Amino acid sequence: MDLSLVIPLKNEAESLPELCRWIAGAIGRSGLRYEIILVDDGSTDGSWEVICGLRKENSSIKGLRFQRNYGKSAALNEGFRAATGQVVITMDADLQDSPDEILPLYKMVAGGGYDLVSGWKKVRHDNRITKNIPSRVYNRITGWISGIRIHDFNCGLKAYRLSLVQSLEVYGEMHRYIPVIAKMNGFSRIGEKEVQHRPRKYGVTKFGWERFVNGFLDLMSVLFIGRFGKKPMHLFGLLGTLAFLAGFIISIYLGIAKFVFRVYQMTERPIFYIALVAMIIGVQLFLAGFLAELTVRNSQERNHYLVEDRLGF
Fold it and tell me: Is 56 within a domain?
């Protein structure tokens, strides 16, 4: 299989027929062997029935349906697991992503040497106040923290090498940070392509303001897991040791002040309680790191590493 299209959707019954016809027309001229994987994330508007009907018309269309709504990350995760194409392209089902971008993105991965190519909606047709400005702030912050210089982390239109998506596990709101996760997994050839962004034709947006708060928290999770997921003691142990030492040094100072210089009423000084709290927190952080290490060592993923090439096996 040359190409897999993974399309998560929720309540997009109106747009699906037009989208699938457009995709078939855009790819059909290329001669590529392809599959369209439609992942129904708990739709209530008859989207699954539409998918079943489209399957009868086009055998390249495949469908996955969740029992209830789990979110876009879960839909992408299951779509990635089902994909068999050497290049995997994701896009939204609301017709705001143009299928005419599929072949250029495919070529950038298949023949251009990229592991991941992210779309950039330079010209957007969303509400400027509620989506455009917050998205720009979010992209700037994510790029600064991750070191990945792309303009639109959350663009649904992306192309991936199959080995990359096979290394991913996305959940929560982490679909926004797939480029960050990919880089942490060693897939550093990340590119960008300016893509069309079309006005919404059917339905309404499925995302609200809460996505920014959740997205920031998930970014912190991604960065923490990527750096300390297999060695949590390196973080908690270090912080715990520093906190305990700070409290212990203050305690030594207070002891010397009392017994050598005869400075009494130490328990009435704020620094005494700061030292006490610092030592308690230090011990707690150290124990948290120790317990996390035990958890990691008993995890099935403790020795899961990505091997890019094999020779002689």
Answer: yes
Q: Are residues 14 and 145 in the same domain?
A: yes
Chain center to CA of 145 = 14
pLDDT in tens, 89-113: 999 998 889 999 999 999 999 988 8
Residues 221 and 259 in one domain: no
pTM value is: 0.74
Q: What is the pLDDT of residue 186?
A: 87
Q: Identify whether the C-beta of residue 169 lies closer than 8 Å to the C-beta of residue 95.
A: no
Task: Output the CA torsion sign for 70, 71, 75, 81.
Answer: negative
Count up the domains in the chain and report the number.
2
41 and 66 housed in the same domain? yes
Exposed, middle or buried: residue 261 (CB in 10 Å: 0-12, 13-18, 19+)? exposed
Same domain, 284 and 184: no
Q: What is the CATH number of the domain that holds 123?
A: 3.90.550.10
The two counts, helices (H) then strands (E), for the chain are 10, 7
Summarised one tens digit per residue, pLDDT across range 130-173 is 566 667 777 887 788 788 888 888 888 999 999 999 988 887 77
Judge whether 140 lies within some domain: yes
The sheet with strand 87-90 has its strands ordered as 61-65, 34-40, 3-9, 87-90, 158-161, 116-120, 190-194
pLDDT of 86 strictly over 80: yes
Q: Exposed (0-12), middle (13-18) or buried (19+): which is 259, by Cβ within 10 Å?
A: exposed
Q: Is the pLDDT of residue 277 over 80?
A: yes
Would the pLDDT of 177 be above 90? no
Q: Are 289 and 142 in the same domain?
A: no
Beta bridge partners of 38: 7, 63
Tokens of 188: 């550093």
Domain extent for 286: 233-297
